[in-house]
Amino acid sequence: MSKDITILGIESSCDETAAAVVVNGRNVLSNEISSQIDIHTLYGGVVPEIASRKHTERVNQVIRKALETADRTLDDIDAIAVTYGPGLVGALLIGVAEAKAISWARNIPLIGVHHIEGHISANYIAAPELEPPFLCLVVSGGHTHLVIVKDYGEYEVLGRTLDDAAGEAFDKVARAVGLGYPGGPKIDRAAREGDPHAITFPRGKVGESRYDFSFSGLKSAVLNYLNSEKMQGREVNVPDLAASFQQSVVDVLLTHAMDAADTLGIRKFALAGGVASNSALRAAMKEACDKRGITFYCPPPILCTDNAAMIGCAGYYDYIKGKRSGLDLNAIPNLML
Fold first, then answer.
1. How many structural domains does the chain have?
2. pLDDT above 90 coverage of the chain, percent
3. Helix 238-264 vs helix 183-191: angle between axes, to the nearest 10 degrees?
4. Which of 150, 169, 201, 284 is the most buried (most CB within 10 A)?
C-alpha cells in the first residue's frame, strides 16, 4: 500500500483513558495515557462507576493531546479504531461513543477493535520485524489466553482461564497480604526480596484441558495459608509469600506455553498484557525460549498495560483487510476472541 495510513486509536476498557496516532500499524506518533490508578487505589480496586465518570472527563483531553503530540489534525486521520470489548461496559461505552461521534461528524471510517487483539498487536510495535504466525500468551487483569496468531486478525485460542485470570489472582493476593492495589507490580516488587521456594503452593491443572488455566485454587491456597498462620499466631513473611505465589503462577504459565510451542513446533513466542510486565515471568519465558531456540518477543511495560497505540496498530490491520464498523457499534463487555 503506497499511501501512509494514519489511525487514531482510542482505548477506555478499564481505568486508563488513552488515545494514540499510529501510521501504517507500527509507527507510533503519539501514545497518550491518562491513568486512574491513584483514584482506585483508595478503594482497593477499580470502581466501574468512577472509571466511567473519569473517562467522560478525560477522553477529549487525551485525543486532543495525542493529535497535538503527533502534529496531526482530524483531517489527517484515515480511520478511527476503538476498543469495543471486552471490559467494563460503562467504560467501554465512553470510548465507543466518542469514536462514533468523531466518525459521524468528520465522515471518517470506524473500526471496532477487540481488546485482547490490541494486546497481541503491541508486539508488532515493539518488534517491527515480527509477523504471523506465532504463539502468544496474553496475561492481564481480566484475561489469560494462549493463542496461535495465524495471521493478522486471525486467531486460534488453545487455552484460556476457566476462573480467575492471572492478574486477578495477583490483585486478590496482594490485597490479602496488605500490599494493596494494583497488586501485580507490588507482588513483583515484594517477591524480589523473598524466597520463591519458601512456601509450596499448588500448580493448577484443568483435567483433560491441556492448555486451559485455573488460578482460583492457588488463590484459595494462599488465603488458607494466611488464615492458618494467623490462627497459630505466626507472623507471615510477605516477601517469601509473594515470591512463592508468583513462582506458582509463572510455573503454570511457562509449562503450558512451552508445551504448546514444543508440541506445535512454533519457533516464535510472544508475551502480551499487563502481567507481561512481571519481571519473573519475562525472565523465565526468555530463558525457556532461548534454551529451545525460540525467538522471544515482549513489549516494553508501557505497551503491556492498557494503551491506545496497540488499538491503533490492530485497527490498521483490520482497516487494510477492509473491516469497517457501523454507527450501531456497541460495547460488548464479555466479547470472546
1. 2
2. 83
3. 100
4. 169
- The span from the CA of 109 to the CA of 302, in Å, is 27
C-alpha grid cell, residue 290: 532461548
Beta-ladder partners of 92: none
Rounded Cα–Cα distance for residues 313 and 24 (Å): 8
Q: What is the DSSP letter of 213?
A: B
23-58: per-residue pLDDT in tens? Answer: 999 999 999 999 877 887 777 778 878 888 999 999
Q: Please provide the distance, in angstroms rounded to a whole number, between the alpha carbons at the two ends of the chain.
A: 28
Kindly report, residue by residue over 65-106, the tens digit of the pLDDT.
Answer: 999 999 999 999 999 999 999 999 999 999 999 999 999 999
Same domain assignment for residues 55 and 163: no
Going from the C-alpha of 74 to that of each of 47, 193, 244, 284, the distances in angstroms are: 32, 49, 50, 43
Same domain, 141 and 113: no
80 pairs with which residues across the strands?
8, 110
The x, y and z cell numbers of residue 60, run together, are: 477529549
Please, is 265 exposed, middle or buried when counting C-beta atoms within 10 Å of its C-beta (0-12, 13-18, 19+)? Answer: exposed
**Model confidence at 15, in pLDDT bands (50, 70, 90)?**
confident
Nearest CA among 83, 17, 14, 55 for reference residue 335: 83
CA-to-CA distance for 116 and 182, rounded, in angstroms? 20
pLDDT at 44: 76
Domain holding 256, by residue range, is 132-298
Span 290-312, mean pLDDT?
96
For residues 38 and 112, membership in a common domain is answered with yes
76 found inside a domain: yes
Amino acid at 121: S
Specify the CATH number for the domain of residue 258.
3.30.420.40
Measured CA angle at 251 (ends 236, 282), to 5 deg: 95
Count Cβ neighbours within 10 Å for each residue of 163-179 and write b for 16 or more, e otherwise: bbbbbbbbbbbbebbeb
